[in-house]
Amino acid sequence: MSEPPSDDPEQQIALWLRANPGFLQRHPELLPHLKMPDVHAGRAISLHERQMEVMREKHRQLEHRLAELMRVAQENDLIGERVQRFTRAVLLHEDRKTLPDRISGLLGEVFQVPQVAMRLWPPGSARHAPGVQLPVEPAVVAAVDGLHHPLCGSPANKPGVSWLPEAGKSARSVALLALRRGAEAEAFGLLVLGSGDPDRFQAQMGTAFLQRLAEMISAALTPALGPVLSGHGAPTAGREVDRLA
Fold first, then answer.
1. CATH 3.10.180.10 applies to domain 95-244
2. HSE-up of 110 (CA within 13 Å, CB side)?
3. How do residues 129-146 score in pLDDT, each as one tens digit?
């Protein structure tokens, strides 16, 4: 719907320019003579200068974006290198009974996780066999069964936090990783990562890497469950990295 005609010359010019958007392209010599307010300095500048400012601002934004992408790429390279070191060390560990302790130590050494705790129990229907005593309360087992993605954030009201050194009193943020065989609904253990830094494991953080880590650790522990459970009774593993506490 067209606008009603106006007797205001400026309004007429604005309407004409709107109807002829290619006018300034056909007459670029007019750009230096058109003035616009400078939002930063409060003075009048030419349209040409204003366009240059806009281009410079876009250039600065692209530079910041490129720097951020480079930073993320460097972090991903570092994570990939640490994952390789961690996986290699786990695969080379031959004593299955001590594998949970080895994993806990590597999480501190390779990923600089200050506090680590892990508890394992019989998987699937084996946990209901006669005479089986679980190392944790049934309510904790049920909660871990319902944990299908890493849970991060404040340690308050989260299962397994008390397994950390000092009963978790020095932890300000935690990550809970359920351990399960493949896609089985029932878990066979819980890995708790703790830190005195409240921002280390944030509730809003991405958990894709932690999920892959949980899957890798679960796969490594699955063939070792028999020796671990038979050798430890109520298997636990946990430690605090003193230099990073």
1. no
2. 20
3. 777 778 889 899 999 999
